[in-house]
Amino acid sequence: MNAAGLRPSRESGGLDSILLTVIVVLAVIGVVSVYSAGSERSLALYGSPHAMFLNQLSRAAVGFLLMFGIAQVPYRYWQKLAIPAIAVAVILLLLLFVDSAAHTSKGATRWLKLGPIRFQPSEIARYAAVIFIAAWAHKKGALMERFETGMAIPLGVAVLIAGLILLQPDFSTAALLMVTVVMLLFVAGVKLSHLTMVLSPIMITGFLVVWLSDYKRERLLTFFAPYKDPSNAGYQILQSWIGLGRGGLFGVGVGESRQKLFFLPDAHTDFIYSIVGEEWGLFGTIGLLVLFIVLIMRGFRVATRCQDPFGSYLAAGITFSIGIYALTNMAIAVGVLPSTGLPLPLISYGGTSLMMTLAALGIVLNISRYQGVKGQKLHHSRRAR
Questions:
Q1: In this predicted model, what pLDDT tens digit does every residue of 144-198 receive, in sequence order?
Q2: Residue range of the domain that includes 380
Q3: pTM of the model as a whole
Q4: Contact (Cβ atoms closer than 8 angstroms) between residue 110 and residue 101
Q5: Is residue 284 domain-resident?
Q6: Is 23 helix (H, G, I), strand (E, B) or coil?
Q7: Torsion of CA 183, 323, 267, 362, to 10 degrees
Q8: Does residue 371 belong to any structural domain of this protein?
Q9: Which of 14, 1, 8 shows the shortest CA–CA distance to 371?
């Protein structure tokens, strides 16, 4: 079946309106939060408190153009681009090892320079991996339950991409990429025993990477005892807690954050959720969490109602990726997980993350036009058993 042969559901009336509304609301909250959280840093770096806000606003505009444009493209076309997408992702990640093309910041080489444009190839690579695995799972069908025909190739591709990301170094993105891949492979019909067999060495390797790195090991140990070194290793999470605590129930008001005055590092990026908590209070943080939960639920609803296995896997994979990032970032801000350098999708300052997230959601919106029977299950190989 091709996309041209699928008819948009009369019940849905086109794009999923609830999902679209949540995306718009989150993006608006993101632009407002960046304006507030980044105004002082913007003044220090660019001489204007509005510079970062205008950057984020322009990126959001481009992102929405991408989203609405991609939402008009039948999602089946991405199946044809699965292998080219992986090839492009690998090439872009390899270009990070070319000094003339790469940009290094804070000891990590995660950005490519194309004239005045800088972007993160890892943001492209994680969605390319989802497209490839969705296409592979659809092609193999019930053969996904066999190791050699099911998970060997997609897992190998994912390990290659994660390895290149890890060398930047960017452990958190590599780790969450693998989490997304494992969850998508399980949905696609890979046996749990096969996943367990390969997960053990991957997890051991991940632990060794953390433990053998002084910086990563310090972050992990700080997670268990942040007050042991409050002025150094534990400083960031303690300042995050101060901001969340200062916000109380209703917050101190938009633009009135004190932690953004260089008390909380990365207030406009990794820890923007703390600024939301300080300015909008507990109700603001809960509201933001609820919005992401709704986005995740609608994404999975699109996946479960799609009549085509490729569309189901693709929507599920994109939802997994965005949802895992969002929940992990918020968990870090409140101290449930160790600190890592992850943005909050649609909220944190950053062009590549914002535009790629909106572009990926454009694919999900397009899939929402091709709906099946209410309550229909994902079309993975377990259905045939």
A1: 778 777 788 999 999 999 999 988 888 889 989 999 999 999 988 888 877 887 7
A2: 17-384
A3: 0.89
A4: no
A5: yes
A6: helix
A7: 120
A8: yes
A9: 8
How far from the centroid of its chain's Cα atoms is residue 272's Cα? 15
**Which residue spans within the chain are E strands per DSSP?**
102-105, 108-114, 117-119
What is the rounded CA–CA span in Å between residue 103 and residue 108? 9
Q: Omega into 345 within 30° of 0, i.e. cis? A: no
What are residue 114's DSSP bridge partners? Answer: 117
d(CA 82, CA 15): 24
Whether residue 9 lies inside any domain: the answer is: no
Q: Amino acid letter at 314?
A: L
165's tokens:
């990301």
Tokens 């890892």 appear where? 122
Please state the domain count of the chain: 1
Q: Report CA-CA distances (Å) from 314 to 93, 311, 325.
A: 22, 5, 17
Closest of 286, 282, 269 to residue 329, by C-alpha: 269
| 108-114 and 102-105 strand pairing | antiparallel
Measured CA to CA, the distance from residue 4 to residue 224 in angstroms comes to 54
Question: Mind listing the pLDDT tens digit for each residue in 8-33?
Answer: 444 345 789 999 999 999 999 999 99
d(CA 169, CA 221): 20
Give dist(CA 234, CA 222) in Å, integer: 6
Specify if 6 maps to a domain: no
Which residues are within 8 A (CB) of 109 and not within 5 positions of it... i.e. 6 or more apart?
96, 97, 102, 103, 168
Residue 279, class by beta-carbon neighbours within 10 Å (0-12 exposed, 13-18 middle, 19+ buried)?
buried
Q: Rounded CA gap, 361 and 3, in Å?
A: 18
Contacts 24+ apart (CB under 8 A), 25-28: 25/291, 26/288, 26/291, 26/292, 26/295, 26/345, 26/346, 26/347, 27/60, 27/63, 27/64, 27/346, 27/354, 27/358
